[in-house]
Predict the 3D structure of the following.
Amino acid sequence: MSEFFLSGRAVDLILLMMLAEGVLVAVHHRRTGRGFAPADLKAILMSGAGLLLALRCALTGAWWGWIALSLLVALAAHLGDLRRRWRRGPSGSSSV
């Protein structure tokens, strides 16, 4: 079990499950109009994926620059998501 985590394969599995989740939620939204809009979903999944990639890099002993880049991707996606949500306001309508 230790090798499964230290090799980064656990993170790979989680990333694959996140990808499947993203596809299923997007298909559900397209069919029903309910759930997360694709733009919202993309920002959420990108920030999570950035954090997971940073974890994978740290577990596998990757160069520190890859860890920093992964964290930067996560931060950029998170800030972009916050900006969009802030502009929409609490009711989901645009306040700008």
Summary: The chain has one domain: 2-88. Residues 2-88 form one domain. The two ends are 51 Å apart (CA to CA). The first helix runs from residue 2 to 6.
